[in-house]
Design goal:
CATH class of the largest domain: Mainly Beta
CATH topology of the largest domain: Immunoglobulin-like
Length: about 270
């Protein structure tokens, strides 16, 4: 790509991307932890971007309780956020905690610097080697329902409510006993291809399965944060595919795509302009 054209494209993306972000409620992300050791304790901090003037917050954090055993929550990012704001009743058997926090409702609310830790979950890794678990921000609709909601206060005292579709989420993942590789797949991995690479608009991901299984696609950025995920259920043996579009990503850069089907895994690094 012509250097001037590429620089113009990047500048436009930064301008319009920043404008889009400012209209959102907040972004939240967990880290990706590779090669976790079974029996060890790990830390999963939830960080936030564009979290300002907040007067209340509620959400649910979920994980696989057969892989991760909840220990506690700590490192609270708000002065009046504490463990009493977390309902951990089902944390051990069902793998989730509910968070419901309310601060002072008057302006200016609570603001934190970008990439601040809002709170941190402590887990013990109990899953076997080659297992993994998402640690994801979500909501629960069973009784009592806990909907995702971020409420910000305006200078005039009125509120702005942001729901899950308006707050970009980058869920975390803990992988037990293996390190994701960007090289060619080994014999026991999944045959995949991603073309073209690099790309500007979109690329085609193709992969082949030898048995009926669920599959997951994760894309992580250069910092290891998940920027996109997709789940497929009961895919049949044979060829499958999906289109990776530039709009799924957080901007131009280097990314890593991970495809997992059952206990098989394959990865590819790619570049988008």
């Amino acid at each position: 790509m012509n250097v001037c054209l590429r620089n113009t494209f990047v500048s436009l993306w930064l301008f319009f991307g920043a404008a889009t972000l400012s209209a959102q409620g907040a972004s939240f992300y967990f880290p990706t932890l590779n090669n976790a050791t079974s029996g060890s304790n790990i830390l999963m901090p939830l960080k936030a971007i564009n979290l300002d003037s907040v007067v209340s917050m509620q959400m649910v954090i979920r994980w696989d309780p057969s892989v991760l055993k909840y220990i506690t929550t700590d490192l609270f990012g708000f002065s009046d956020l504490n463990l009493s704001d977390f309902n951990t009743t089902r944390a051990l058997d069902s793998g989730y905690v509910r968070i419901q926090w309310e601060g002072v409702s008057a302006p200016p609310g609570v603001s934190v610097p970008d990439s601040s830790t809002i709170f941190r979950l402590r887990f013990k890794v109990i899953g076997p080697i080659n297992d993994s678990s998402l640690v994801k921000v979500t909501e629960l609709l069973d009784f009592p329902p806990t909907y995702f909601e971020i409420v910000k206060v305006r200078a005039d005292g009125s509120n702005e409510d942001y729901l899950l579709p308006e707050c970009p989420i980058k869920n975390g993942i803990v992988r037990v006993g293996f390190t994701v590789s960007a090289g060619e797949p080994a014999a026991n991995e999944i045959p995949i291809s991603l073309s073209p690479n690099p790309f500007l608009v979109s690329a085609q991901l193709n992969f082949e399965l030898d048995e009926t299984t669920d599959a997951q696609v994760f894309i992580t950025d250069a910092m290891g944060r998940i920027v996109f995920e997709n789940n497929f259920f009961k895919l049949s043996p044979g060829q499958h595919g999906m289109v990776i579009e530039n709009g799924m990503l957080s901007g131009p850069g280097v990314y890593s795509l991970t495809l997992r089907a059952g206990r098989k895994i394959a990865t590819r690094k790619f570049v988008t302009f």
